[in-house]
């Protein structure tokens, strides 16, 4: 006779409650049915597991030893059931991810493509919105995860730093600051600067570094979108501070980049998730692919940083030659 899970569950319930009556309630059965199950179990293992009298129910020495293995079996079965359910859940569902437009255009496409190849039946909604809209949407639970540079301790979300992005200086090929291998912040003195309008984090970093370098001038041109910055720089209107992860866009605009040094400026690039609810299995899977993709892309950019002094033909993750 083979041992069944029903018998094992009945045995563990009796061991936990020390009562056939209470155990019957736990497993939604009758006392007589439990008695039959325990008798069959004892016949299968060839040992008496429970001593039952009119006053008490107690495990025998063999029963105490068997209980250790019985609990382990039930735990493994429960784990297998949960894993199977999660696997099924990951094969379908919906994930909403938010990012500023340039991140959505540069970083997300290869990551979404990789995710879609693994989970073709999970739909992805990309909210390419201004950074100011991301934290409220994630905090409200309307967005599963948001990507970008966020201030310290944003409310209502959990923040997970992914990489420390480096800032570079971009300019047209004939700009004087593009003649060297790198650019010091102090060398921006006297040059026209194009910048994102405050209170963007990259603008805050620009203002801080210029102040520390003793460079008093304000940007000559302010815009709201990073792609607009790129167009203005391409037209020869000035230089601009640019995130290293986006250098793959520069070649199309005939713009070059040089590492900014003295000091090297870094900004935390993070993903945020709702603090008020757990992520769905589909969102957890996407978060894993997103995290790995961002870090892999950052490693490629880090390797290519020395080449910025020569050209800007840096291939991002997923770009075709």
Secondary structure layout:
Elements: H1 5-17, H2 20-26, H3 31-45, E1 50-52, E2 57-59, H4 61-90, E3 93-99, H5 101-106, H6 108-118, E4 122-128, H7 131-139, E5 145-148, E6 157-172, E7 183-184, E8 194-196, H8 201-212, E9 221-223, H9 226-234, E10 240-243, E11 255-261, E12 266-274, H10 281-304
Parallel strand pairs: 3-4, 3-5, 7-11, 8-9
Antiparallel strand pairs: 1-2, 5-12, 6-10, 6-11, 6-12
Helix pairs in contact: 1-2, 1-3, 1-4, 2-3, 4-10, 6-10
Mean pLDDT: 86
CATH architecture of the largest domain: 3-Layer(aba) Sandwich
Whole-number count of domains = 2
In what range is the share of β-strand residues?
15-25%
**CATH topology-level fold name of the largest domain:** D-Maltodextrin-Binding Protein, domain 2
The sequence of SSEs as H and E is HHHEEHEHHEHEEEEHEHEEEH
Indicate the structural class. Answer: alpha/beta
State the low-pLDDT regions, or none. 310-321
Regarding quaternary structure, what we see is: single chain
Count of extended strands: 12
For the record, the CATH class of the largest domain is: Alpha Beta
The helix count comes to 10
The N- to C-terminal Cα distance equals: 65 Å
Structural write-up:
Strands 3, 4, 5, 6, 7, 10, 11 and 12 form an eight-stranded mixed sheet that branches. The chain has a two-stranded antiparallel ribbon with strand order 1-2. The chain has a two-stranded parallel sheet with strand order 8-9. It has helices spanning 5-17, 20-26, 31-45, 61-90, 101-106, 108-118, 131-139, 201-212, 226-234, 281-304; strands at 50-52, 57-59, 93-99, 122-128, 145-148, 157-172, 183-184, 194-196, 221-223, 240-243, 255-261, 266-274. It is α/β, with parallel strands linked by helices. The N and C termini lie far apart (65 Å). It has two domains: 5-89, Arc Repressor Mutant, subunit A, CATH 1.10.10.10; 93-309, D-Maltodextrin-Binding Protein, domain 2, CATH 3.40.190.
């Amino acid at each position: 006779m083979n041992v069944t899970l029903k018998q094992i569950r009945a045995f563990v319930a009796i061991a936990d409650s020390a009562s056939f009556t209470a155990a019957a309630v736990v497993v939604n059965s009758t006392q007589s049915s439990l008695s039959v199950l325990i008798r069959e179990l004892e016949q299968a293992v060839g040992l008496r597991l429970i001593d039952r009298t009119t006053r008490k129910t107690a495990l025998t020495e063999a029963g105490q030893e068997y209980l250790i293995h019985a609990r382990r079996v039930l735990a493994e079965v429960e784990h297998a059931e949960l894993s199977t359910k999660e696997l099924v859940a990951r094969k379908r569902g919906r994930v909403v991810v938010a990012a500023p437009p340039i991140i959505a255009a540069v970083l997300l496409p290869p990551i979404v493509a990789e995710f879609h190849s693994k989970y073709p039946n999970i739909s992805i909604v990309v909210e390419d919105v201004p950074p100011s809209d991301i934290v409220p949407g994630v905090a409200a639970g309307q967005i599963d995860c948001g990507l970008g540079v966020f201030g310290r301790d944003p409310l209502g979300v959990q923040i997970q730093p992914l990489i420390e992005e480096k800032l570079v200086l971009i300019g047209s090929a004939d700009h004087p600051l593009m003649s060297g291998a790198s650019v010091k912040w102090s060398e921006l003195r006297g040059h026209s600067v194009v910048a994102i309008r405050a209170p963007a984090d990259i603008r805050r970093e620009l203002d801080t570094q210029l102040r520390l370098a003793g460079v008093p001038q304000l940007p000559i041109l302010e815009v709201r979108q990073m792609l607009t910055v790129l167009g203005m720089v391409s037209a020869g209107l000035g230089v601009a501070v640019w995130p290293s992860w986006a250098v793959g866009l520069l070649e199309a605009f005939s713009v070059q980049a040089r590492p900014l040094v003295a000091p090297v400026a870094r900004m935390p690039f993070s993903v945020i998730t709702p603090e008020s609810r757990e992520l769905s299995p589909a969102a957890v899977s996407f978060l894993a692919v997103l995290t790995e993709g961002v870090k892999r892309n950052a490693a490629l950019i880090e390797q290519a940083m020395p080449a910025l002094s020569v050209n800007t033909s840096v291939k991002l993750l997923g770009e075709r030659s």
